[in-house]
Design brief:
The protein has five helices and seven strands, in the order βαββββααααββ. By secondary structure, it is α+β, with helices and mostly antiparallel strands. The protein folds into two domains: 4-110, Integrase, DNA-binding domain (Double Stranded RNA Binding Domain), CATH 3.30.160; 114-161, no CATH class. It has a five-stranded mixed sheet with strand order 1-2-3-4-5, with helices on one face. The chain has a two-stranded antiparallel sheet with strand order 6-7. Helix 4 (116-129) runs antiparallel to helix 5. It starts with a strand and ends with a strand.
């Protein structure tokens, strides 16, 4: 089956299968991932493994091939992934390496002072976004205050050190 066709929901569900356990590389190792490329948008594809399907873009940036993860299938629809892919491919055409940009942003974030109070506040915000029970957030806050001296009046507020 050709690995280049239109990446639509029905095609992804029907045609984008993980590699079989019998498939081997030239070196004799088992194939762990397969890439299915979109026939309409060059550089846009779906990386399929036994456990997940991930949308990707791949293109040369400044003479070097770069592969960027867009997101997982199921979290993103093929249409949403294609829209993101168009934007990323345009940036890559202009010479921007999204991976280098991400590394730079991560390095800048690591240089900022990050305290335990910041971590607790971030964790409580994440719990709230995920829909955790208010009691779970309250219990966590009271235990952290009791044992570590980190307090937060409400989840989402930046806790202050006692």
């Amino acid at each position: 089956m050709p690995s280049r066709f239109r990446l639509t929901k029905s095609n992804v569900d029907r045609k984008c299968l993980p590699p079989s356990t019998k498939e081997k590389t030239r070196g004799g190792r088992p194939v762990r991932q397969k890439i299915y490329w979109d026939s309409k948008l060059p550089g846009f594809g779906l990386l399929v493994s036994a456990s997940c399907k991930t949308f990707i873009v791949q293109r040369e940036v400044n003479g070097r091939s770069r592969r960027v993860t867009i997101g997982k299938y199921g979290v993103l629809t093929p249409k949403q992934a294609e829209d993101k892919a168009r934007k990323l491919l345009q940036e890559m055409r202009e010479g921007v390496d999204p991976n280098a940009l991400r590394r730079q942003q991560r390095a800048e974030a690591m240089q900022k002072e990050y305290t335990l109070a910041d971590g607790v506040a971030e964790h409580l915000r994440n719990m709230k976004q995920k829909g955790c029970a208010q009691r779970s957030m309250d219990d966590l806050s009271s235990e952290l205050e009791r044992h570590l001296g980190v307090s937060s009046s409400r989840p989402g507020d930046a806790p202050a050190l006692s």
